Amino acid sequence: MKFSKFGKALLMSALSAGVVLSITSCVQSYSVGFLYVTGTNTAQTSGEGVISGFKIDHNTGKLTSIAGLPIASGGSNPGRAVLLTGGRFLYVLNRGTTASGGSNCTVADPCNNANISQFAIGGNGILSYQQHVFTQGLNPFRLIVDGTGGYLYVLDHDAPSNASCSLALGAGVNSCGDITAFKIDPVTGRPSLVVNAQVTSASGSALPYFPVPANPIDFSLASNFILTLSGSPATGDVVFPYTYNGSSGQLTVNQNSAQPLGITQATAIVTPPGSVTYVLDNEPPNPNPNQATSQILPFTTGSNGALQAETNGAVPDDPSESNPIYLIVESKGKWVYLANHGNNSTPTDPQSGLVAYTITSPFQLTPIANGGSTSGTGAGPVCLLEDPSNQFVYTANFNDSTISGASIDQRAGVLRPLSQVTKAKDSYALPGPAAWCVVSGRTS
Fold first, then answer.
1. What is residue 348's predicted lDDT score, i.e. its pLDDT?
2. Distance of CA 279 to CAs 184, 296, 321, 434, Å?
3. The whole model's pTM is what?
4. What percent of the chain has pLDDT over 90?
5. Contact 352, 434 (CB under 8 A)
6. DSSP notation for 169-187
7. Residue 124: helix, strand or coil by DSSP?
8. CA atoms within 13 A on the CB side of 367
9. What is the pLDDT, as a whole number, of residue 3?
10. Element (H, E) at 320
11. What does the pLDDT read at residue 371?
């Protein structure tokens, strides 16, 4: 077959257009996940907090608001939130308020109307309220879900009865917190209470919760154990293990003594996927070189749930930042990112930001030079996560009511502001102070 000059030109134009279209389709923008942020803004008439939501662009990390959000969180003073495996349901812990309307919950002035609100995630990330359940203790403030999405656990700062504390934790213990456990229905997502099968109350009835040492700070699920971090500057910080049964959701005491950590300012306990548990410690800045500043303490978990400190010891935080509140290990297991909330009460205090580390051995972290980017987060981050495409990290920030994003340098682990890499914005406004953030990779 022969083509005229005009035909050849027409054919070349068609081929060129096809190439352009194919290239365009390869870089077509699409959402790789949904990012949800709980917030304490109560400007609405219901007095409830809010849940904001954003679509994450796969190519740029740009965030676009989900239609119909923000919505009410199902209660006042929302904090932590979790997503079930598969991203079908979102659970929000609403901590409630005191009788005077405040959020500083104590035994003497507990927060009222605390609940866990369940939301279904529909098409395009839209949330629809389903129902709520209540914890068995007072002043709930932490929430985790197991790896299968079968059980939900809530950390209550104060047990409802001090008489039950010694029954689970040993004679002489007259105050404690507790864990409330729920089984999740795999179809409806509805939580139902898991009753303590090991400990009964003084009257002989089953306890509807699992006591933990007083002044709980945080908890995490590490393999076959739930580890609760408790303590205070006066008593020192400890970790108490419960053995976790993945079939029944039951928690069983296998040793009655809590493990001292030798620190007094612990802020969090985090167990990313893998074998390492990290305790974050906010020791105050001090010109004395022999006194540690904020630090990361890495541990492995022994057969009885006891933490075993690693031989290389604690890893120092960036001295220009303070108050570490959370960390993540990125998806390839090469780098660790630490979020510092900061102490912004005076201009001279160490500030908030992100710090990056290379994992140089299973338990050794080496700071990446210029790896942490103070422009990679806003003021007072409260959470830190990696997006489902493993390209970007985001923080939600309390002090300036924003979400901040950064791109992960896939060769060196350095965090770079989105504007320097993809021309997306570095931060996005929220309707009020952030409390927590979660991300779902389910987009349909």
1. 52
2. 28, 6, 17, 23
3. 0.90
4. 66
5. no
6. H-TT---EEEEEEEEEPTT
7. helix
8. 14
9. 47
10. none
11. 60
More confident residue, 49 or 375: 49
**For residue 290, pLDDT beyond 80:** no
CB 129 within 8 A of CB 49: no
Angle at 166 between CA 297 and CA 156, to 5 degrees: 55
pLDDT of 20 reads 41
* DSSP-based three-state secondary structure for 252: strand
Segment (H or E) for 20: helix 5-26
CA distance 9 to 7: 5
Instruction: Say if CB 384 and CB 406 are below 8 A apart.
Output: no
- For β-strands 89-94 and 78-83, DSSP reports them as antiparallel
Task: Report the amino acid identity of residue 294.
Answer: S
pLDDT tens sequence across 377-423: 788 999 999 999 999 999 999 999 999 999 999 999 999 999 999 99
Backbone φ and ψ of 182, nearest 5° = -130, 140
pLDDT in tens, 299-322: 999 888 999 998 888 999 988 888
Can you tell me whether residue 403 is helix, strand or coil? strand
Taking alpha carbons only, the member of 400, 261, 377, 256 closest to residue 328 is 377
Residue 420: strand, helix, or coil: helix
36's enclosing H/E stretch is strand 31-39
Please tell me the distance from the alpha carbon of residue 237 to that of residue 353, in angstroms, as a whole number.
25
Beta bridge partners of 428: 403
- Measure the CA–CA gap between 382 and 167, rounded to whole angstroms: 35
Pairing of strands 335-340, 315-316: unpaired
What are phi and psi for residue 231, nearest 5 degrees? 135, -170
Q: How far is CA 256 from CA 170, 207, 249, 252, 259, in A?
A: 6, 17, 20, 11, 10
Which stretch of 61-70, 351-360, 389-398 has the lowest confidence by average pLDDT? 351-360
What residues does 154 pair with on adjacent strands? 143, 180
Mean pLDDT, the chain, whole residue set: 87
- Kind and range of the H or E run holding 435: strand 434-440
Polymer length of the chain: 444
